[in-house]
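User: Fold this; tokens only.

Assistant: Input:
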Amino acid sequence: MSSTPNQVMFAYTFLNQPAALSNRSAKDIPAILSIEASFTITMNDDIYLESSLSILEFYKSLYRWKEKITETSVPEFHYYSVEFDANGKGAIISMIPFSNRGRIKSIWGEHDRYNVFPLDMLVSSLLDLEQKLKSDIETYFNVQLDKFIHHIPYTLLEE
């Protein structure tokens, strides 16, 4: 199998049973934060990050980032967790744009890597991830995320 340059892949598996979340728990912050997924970022066929994440919290970070994108501007994406104090170490997962390129980085990354990718590819990948996560969360847990979105904790810090 040959390696495809400029490839970033995101994969996740929910760790909770489907009954762990219902529309009745839309305002239940501990229940929301307890929903986790095993999350993997693979770059150019190398696993960069493999960790469990509070998947609804991560989803909300993607959702809020998507709202800030304009035709002329792509902001940085940062995912912080209310359950993890980074102590100035940085975001758990970030996408840093510069010019027409960008990079994915994590304070929990397997190895320090400086992978630079075309910005349009990274943006497209993250937007696809946001849509797929929404669909998969709603299907797996049989919930409507619109009922949850305002109650999911969200941490916004500037790096």
